[in-house]
């Protein structure tokens, strides 16, 4: 079958949206490190809409640091790919033209390095997941045991990792008198811009100390808040795209309709008109991260753990349960009461939006997340809300927070005897005593700080079994 490409855009069916601009008329202004499904569904889609709205030389060269597959899939298609958006109301497909090309660092090194040093490149965006950066979260500096960090410190002129590539390119640009690019972290990590800037500073201190002041003063790393669930493509995804397009698309992806992007507006050399695509520019992204953490992430954790206890296997099954759907609405309402006002945000429509988003996310049969992650996720998403609620003078009311079902989920999971669960039990040293059911376990956790700490911080608080036995 004929492959999707620029030459065949005119043959697309009317129901498939295509770029509302001529992709060949726009140059590359962004290099993206970590070319995967999330970048294609999120930043590339926003950039596609920005180009349609305001134009500019802001197309993207996508770079895969490890696998050659993205370049193999996208190069014969001139960078085009199909984005299928799923929702409870149905599906919609559009062809994204924001990618000017795709490269693999291992086989296209000269092309990648040339793009990083090109004066036309004004933004380098990154999505490599937390493990890909080589950061020591305890110190905020480099993790010397990370393979890419160790390689790039030993061979700084042949970088293979994020920090090594960025510092090498910034050094070359300064030597050539080219302004530095803005570094835009788009991974779902708190204060991701500050995190990446700290990583660059520590790497530079070790590999190129003469560049330290330049990076400290001249290189902008705005933080972002990103959100869009994007599962890995399957053969069914590619078949759906082929049916919709009448063309073969080896790079098609599917995602939810819901999407969000909040960006600190610090771009010395300009940026695409992402605001026209729905992105929000702010001075400080941290309040928005807190909002997402408490409202959306907390709701997802609650649905996952309560759904697990109810016997559901997929998120779609959970949101189809009327009782659990009411539970998430209560959580959103209660969590909103703990948050300070944000410019341009009204909590009532926000709660409605994210309640709809939770339903929208039923579009794929996404499995419920690994329940053994319950303590970590509950700690991150749920612990802060009660204190600010009381500090704001609100009357005490029960908060439907995720951690009681999360703790009960821990109990349910720990009863299993699979090799994985045995390994988790050994690692956390947390085995509920015989006769302690999920309801009792959750109640103990709500009443006893030692119990809760034992479940959520077993390494700091000792043996979880003794803690659960108290009260």
Automatic annotation (TrEMBL):
<feature type="domain" description="Mannitol dehydrogenase C-terminal">
    <location>
        <begin position="284"/>
        <end position="337"/>
    </location>
</feature>
<dbReference type="Pfam" id="PF01232">
    <property type="entry name" value="Mannitol_dh"/>
</dbReference>
<dbReference type="InterPro" id="IPR036291">
    <property type="entry name" value="NAD(P)-bd_dom_sf"/>
</dbReference>
<dbReference type="InterPro" id="IPR000669">
    <property type="entry name" value="Mannitol_DH"/>
</dbReference>
<dbReference type="InterPro" id="IPR013131">
    <property type="entry name" value="Mannitol_DH_N"/>
</dbReference>
<dbReference type="InterPro" id="IPR050988">
    <property type="entry name" value="Mannitol_DH/Oxidoreductase"/>
</dbReference>
<dbReference type="InterPro" id="IPR008927">
    <property type="entry name" value="6-PGluconate_DH-like_C_sf"/>
</dbReference>
<dbReference type="InterPro" id="IPR013328">
    <property type="entry name" value="6PGD_dom2"/>
</dbReference>
<keyword id="KW-0560">Oxidoreductase</keyword>
<dbReference type="GO" id="GO:0050086">
    <property type="term" value="F:mannitol 2-dehydrogenase activity"/>
</dbReference>
<dbReference type="Pfam" id="PF08125">
    <property type="entry name" value="Mannitol_dh_C"/>
</dbReference>
<feature type="domain" description="Mannitol dehydrogenase N-terminal">
    <location>
        <begin position="29"/>
        <end position="274"/>
    </location>
</feature>
<dbReference type="InterPro" id="IPR013118">
    <property type="entry name" value="Mannitol_DH_C"/>
</dbReference>
<protein>
    <submittedName>
        <fullName>Mannitol 2-dehydrogenase</fullName>
        <ecNumber>1.1.1.67</ecNumber>
    </submittedName>
</protein>
């Amino acid at each position: 079958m004929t492959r999707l490409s620029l030459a065949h855009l005119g043959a697309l069916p009317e129901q498939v949206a295509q770029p509302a601009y001529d992709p060949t008329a726009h140059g590359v202004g962004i290099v993206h490190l970590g070319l995967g499904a999330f970048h294609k569904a999120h930043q590339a889609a926003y950039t596609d809409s920005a180009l349609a709205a305001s134009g500019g030389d802001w197309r993207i060269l996508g770079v895969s640091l490890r696998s050659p597959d993205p370049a193999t899939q996208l190069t014969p298609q001139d960078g085009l790919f199909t984005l299928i958006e799923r929702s409870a109301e149905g599906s919609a497909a559009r062809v994204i033209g924001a990618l000017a090309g795709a490269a693999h660092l291992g086989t296209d090194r000269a092309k990648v390095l040339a793009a990083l040093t090109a004066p036309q490149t004004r933004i380098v965006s990154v999505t490599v997941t937390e493990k890909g950066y080589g950061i020591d979260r305890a110190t905020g500096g480099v993790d010397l045991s990370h393979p890419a960090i160790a390689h790039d410190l030993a061979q700084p002129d042949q970088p293979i990792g994020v920090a090594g590539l960025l510092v090498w390119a910034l050094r070359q640009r300064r030597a050539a008198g080219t302004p530095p690019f803005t570094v835009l972290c788009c991974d779902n990590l708190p204060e991701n811009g500050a995190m990446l800037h700290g990583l660059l500073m520590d790497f530079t201190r070790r590999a190129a100390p003469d560049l330290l002041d330049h990076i400290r003063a001249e290189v902008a790393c705005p933080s972002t808040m990103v959100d869009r669930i994007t599962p890995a493509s399957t053969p069914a995804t590619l078949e759906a795209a082929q049916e919709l397009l009448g063309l073969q698309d080896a790079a098609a992806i599917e995602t939810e309709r819901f999407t969000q992007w909040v960006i600190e507006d610090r771009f010395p050399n300009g940026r695409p008109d992402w605001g026209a695509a729905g992105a929000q520019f702010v001075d400080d992204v941290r309040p928005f991260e807190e909002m997402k953490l408490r409202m959306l992430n907390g709701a997802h954790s609650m649905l996952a753990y309560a759904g697990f206890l109810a016997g559901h296997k997929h998120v779609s099954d959970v949101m189809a349960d009327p009782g659990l759907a009411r539970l998430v609405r209560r959580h959103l309402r209660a969590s909103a009461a703990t948050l300070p006002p944000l410019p341009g945000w009204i909590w009532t429509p926000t709660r409605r939006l994210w309640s709809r988003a939770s339903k929208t996310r039923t579009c794929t049969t996404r499995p419920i997340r690994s329940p053994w992650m319950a303590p970590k996720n509950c700690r991150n998403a749920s612990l802060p809300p009660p204190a600010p609620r009381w500090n704001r003078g609100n009357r005490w009311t029960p908060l439907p927070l995720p951690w009681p079902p999360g703790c009960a989920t821990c109990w349910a999971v720990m009863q299993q005897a699979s090799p994985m669960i045995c390994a988790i039990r050994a690692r956390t040293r947390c085995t509920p005593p015989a006769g302690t059911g999920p309801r009792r376990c959750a109640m103990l956790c709500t009443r006893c700080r030692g119990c809760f700490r034992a479940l959520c911080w077993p390494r700091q608080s000792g043996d979880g079994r003794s803690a659960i036995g108290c009260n």
